[in-house]
């Protein structure tokens, strides 16, 4: 039974007892109901990610991060936190015992009515989650209209309306609605969070970080707040803050693979390669068999320890390697004197047009070691035609490579002992 299928009476008993935060911690994190993508994964619904869709491809594959689950989680958070939004009830003036008795009955009616409204809002919120998760925008809009009829100009209406607009690609109109929600409830962390994501859409990282920091401060129990804040830090090139925030994220949700991956990338950006490698080895000991993790691990092994044997063992098991991993594999194969295999991988790199100078150097050495002199000379000429301004440098490299080969051929070869 999913959390949404639990009796609403039990949920609101939890809320009224003042244990909402503990309830979330127990249900969402200790029981791992939100491991991965909440609500969406079981339905196998393929949807576009709603947040930060413009991430450039060069940003360490951040474009692959799916934030739809985080977004739906926030909606869920609002649905089951109306107790936090309800207005304070005015206590009756106790002039005498009779006045208290007279006013107690209307108060009970008001409380009953307030509870009924919260239950109805929760039901509508469930429907909203279902519709928005499956991309049924018109149905979701009808739900928002119902919420407005029941609660008027409330935190719930302003937030759900802005969530609907945001999910359909309108990022300007929700700003006013979210500001209104915050005006009604200055502690409404989901509104700060969504404002941060909207400003991220506009690549205004200063404002994005500002609102995400408030959300993470007010909802410090929520790992998704901290994770998306770390992405904003990372894209703003504040890798040190990203590292700290990601460590906090993993304290709250230790099986959050995307946070582990971004933490590794932050450490690499900070040139903390030894720390990154130690973290990779810990993940390896935990048997974390995720392709990109293993690629980063292999690249660090090659860069820091030059362990070509293990690098080859890891990378040859992975299909569709990234460019940096192909380069590590090609160089590792070269170090193991597996020249033909190394050549094949280098040719894949050259086909991308993203080769670097060292790729050319190693490839030329391979040609000489295989005594492919004609190919060597043709490659030199092609390189000069492609980079005429580097002609003198390339010719100097040619000269040095030929000298090194002649010296290598003069290696003393003793007669083996009988």
Provide the descriptors you would attach to this structure in a database record.
418 residues; mainly alpha; 22 helices; 0% strand; disordered N terminus
Task: Indicate the topology.
Elements lengths: L7 H9 L3 H11 L9 H4 L24 H12 L2 H4 L11 H37 L3 H15 L3 H13 L5 H12 L4 H13 L3 H14 L4 H13 L3 H14 L4 H13 L3 H13 L5 H15 L2 H8 L7 H13 L3 H14 L4 H13 L3 H14 L4 H19 L9
Helix pairs in contact: 4-6, 6-7, 7-8, 8-9, 9-10, 10-11, 10-12, 11-12, 12-13, 13-14, 14-15, 15-16, 16-17, 16-18, 17-18, 18-19, 19-20, 20-21, 20-22, 21-22
Describe the main β-sheet briefly.
none
Q: What is the percent of helical residues?
A: over 70%
What separation lies between the terminal Cα atoms?
77 Å
Beta-strand proportion: under 5%
N-to-C order of helices and strands: HHHHHHHHHHHHHHHHHHHHHH
> Could you tell me the radius of gyration in angstroms?
30 Å
**Which outline best applies?**
elongated
The number of helices is: 22
Give me the count of strands: 0
- Average the pLDDT over all residues and give the rounded result: 79
Structural class: mainly alpha
- Enumerate the spans where pLDDT stays under 50 for 5 or more consecutive residues: 1-67, 80-106
**Assembly state here?**
single chain
Structure description:
It contains 22 helices and no strands. It is mainly alpha-helical and 418 residues long.
Brief summary of the model shown:
The protein has helices spanning 8-16, 20-30, 40-43, 68-79, 82-85, 97-133, 137-151, 155-167, 173-184, 189-201, 205-218, 223-235, 239-252, 257-269, 273-285, 291-305, 308-315, 323-335, 339-352, 357-369, 373-386, 391-409. With 418 residues, it is an all-alpha fold.
């Amino acid at each position: 039974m999913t959390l949404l299928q639990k009796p609403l009476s039990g949920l609101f008993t939890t809320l009224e007892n003042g244990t909402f935060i503990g309830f979330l911690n127990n249900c969402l994190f200790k029981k791992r109901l939100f491991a991965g993508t909440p609500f969406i994964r079981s339905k196998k619904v393929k949807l576009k990610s709603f947040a930060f869709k413009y991430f450039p491809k060069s940003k360490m594959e951040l474009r692959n991060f799916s934030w739809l689950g985080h977004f739906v989680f926030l909606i869920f958070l609002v649905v089951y936190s109306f107790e936090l939004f309800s207005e304070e009830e005015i206590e009756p003036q106790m002039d005498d015992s009779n006045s208290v008795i007279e006013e107690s009955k209307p108060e009970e009616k008001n409380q009953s009515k307030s509870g009924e409204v919260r239950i109805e809002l929760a039901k509508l919120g469930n429907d909203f989650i279902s519709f928005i998760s499956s991309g049924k925008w018109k149905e979701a809009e009808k739900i928002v209209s119902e919420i407005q009829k029941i609660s008027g100009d409330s935190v719930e209406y302003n937030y759900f309306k802005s969530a609907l607009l945001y999910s359909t690609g309108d990022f300007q109109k929700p700003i006013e609605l979210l500001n209104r929600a915050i005006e009604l409830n200055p502690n409404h962390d989901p509104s700060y969070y969504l404002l941060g994501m909207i400003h991220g859409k506009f690549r205004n990282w200063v404002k994005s970080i500002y609102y995400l920091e408030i959300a993470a401060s007010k909802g410090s129990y929520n790992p998704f707040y901290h994770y998306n804040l770390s992405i904003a830090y990372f894209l703003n090139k504040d890798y040190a803050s990203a590292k700290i925030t990601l460590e906090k994220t993993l304290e709250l949700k230790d099986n959050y693979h995307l946070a582990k991956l971004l933490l590794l990338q932050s450490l690499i950006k900070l040139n903390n390669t030894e720390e990154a490698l130690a973290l990779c080895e810990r993940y390896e000991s935990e048997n974390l068999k995720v392709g990109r993790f293993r690629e980063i691990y292999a690249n660090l092994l090659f860069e820091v320890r030059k362990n070509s044997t293990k690098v080859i063992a890891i990378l040859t098991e992975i299909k569709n390697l990234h460019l940096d991993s192909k380069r590590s594999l090609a160089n590792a194969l070269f170090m193991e004197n597996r020249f033909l295999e190394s050549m094949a991988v280098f040719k894949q790199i050259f086909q991308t047009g993203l080769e670097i100078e060292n790729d050319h150097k190693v490839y030329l050495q391979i040609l000489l070691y295989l005594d492919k002199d004609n190919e060597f000379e043709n490659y030199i000429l092609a390189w000069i035609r492609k980079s005429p301004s580097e002609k003198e440098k390339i010719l100097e490299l040619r000269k040095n490579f030929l000298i090194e080969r002649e010296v290598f051929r003069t290696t003393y070869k003793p007669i083996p002992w009988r």
